[in-house]
Design brief:
The protein has helices spanning 43-46, 90-93; strands at residues 2-8, 11-16, 27-35, 57-65, 77-79. By secondary structure, the protein is mostly beta strands.
Length: 95
């Protein structure tokens, strides 16, 4: 699977990573479009945490679903609501 990795404002790389398997209540999505806003490129704030996979305004297609997912199916078009944290997954716990 390809991802875009931000190291700094002049170093953004496309890298290959293993395709993740969605957990019981998770979905794997393929990003179709993604916005990058001003807060994504403020280097003094991001550099200490680099490298990062940026972007949070995402339109995507469902690729694979976990066993407990019933509302969505592969092929569905979705968007990611970045300001609605679950507070349970590793991403929410790690900020």
């Amino acid at each position: 699977m390809k991802i875009s990795v931000w190291y700094n404002n002049e170093d953004i790389r496309i890298e290959e990573v293993p395709r993740p398997k969605p957990g019981h209540k998770e979905m794997l999505i393929k990003v179709i479009s993604c916005g990058i806003c001003g807060s994504d490129i403020v280097e003094w704030y991001r550099l200490p945490r680099a490298p990062l996979v940026q972007g949070h305004e995402i339109g995507a297609e469902v690729v694979e679903i976990g066993k407990a997912v019933t509302k969505y199916r592969p092929g569905d078009r979705v968007f990611v609501a970045p300001k609605v944290p679950c507070m349970k997954c590793d991403y929410c716990k790690n900020g």
